[in-house]
Amino acid sequence: MKIKRKRAKIEGIELSDKVVIINRVAKVVKGGRRFSFNALSVVGDGDGHVGVGFGKANDVPDAIDKSKEDAKKNVYKININKNTIPHEVIGTFKSAKVIMKPAAPGTGIIAGASVRAVIEKVGISDILTKSQGSRNPINIVKAAMDGLRQLRSLKEAAECREISISKLWE
């Protein structure tokens, strides 16, 4: 039995945001180059809710606003265990792969800039991560989100295996 992750309802949740990357892209037309911008943003409440959004526009502020609005539409509830993750997980998206491991208290966030933005917005303060494959920040952030959405609590793991929580420890 596979547990599907549903999007979280964001009414009453105070979300903060962080812009991960802003790109300038050029379209070559008859008169020269036409520039536009795209932005990748992460929103979260620091208590297990996080969302990622992507926006495109002709101006940087408009692209950032669009990405924030998109991120607010894609907020997920993530299972966290105290200040770390419950178990090791590997998230993938296209050729990007992000390995995440729980860490002892006081370790801090050992992660690159793209993964760090997602981890901080979730509210995790002790974690070890390694990104492999793609260096594209968009793919890395989406791989990190994939990994975080795979996290399961003890209760969910027991339900998936159709056994009691006490039997899970045996």
Give a structural overview.
The protein has 170 residues and is an alpha+beta fold. The strands form two sheets. The protein has a four-stranded antiparallel beta sheet. A four-stranded mixed beta sheet has the order 5-6-8-7. It folds into two domains: 61 residues, Double Stranded RNA Binding Domain; 92 residues, Ribosomal Protein S5, domain 2 (2-Layer Sandwich). The chain contains five helices and eight strands; from the N terminus they run βββαββββαβααα. The mean pLDDT is 90.
In short:
This protein is α+β, with helices and mostly antiparallel strands and 170 residues long.
Defining key terms:
alpha+beta, Double Stranded RNA Binding Domain, Ribosomal Protein S5, domain 2, 2 domains, four-stranded antiparallel β-sheet, elongated
Q: How is this fold's topology laid out?
A:
Blueprint lengths: L15 E14 L2 E13 L4 E9 L2 H14 L1 E3 L11 E5 L2 E7 L6 E2 L2 H10 L4 E7 L3 H13 L4 H8 L3 H4 L2
Parallel strand pairs: 7-8
Antiparallel strand pairs: 1-2, 2-3, 3-4, 5-6, 6-8
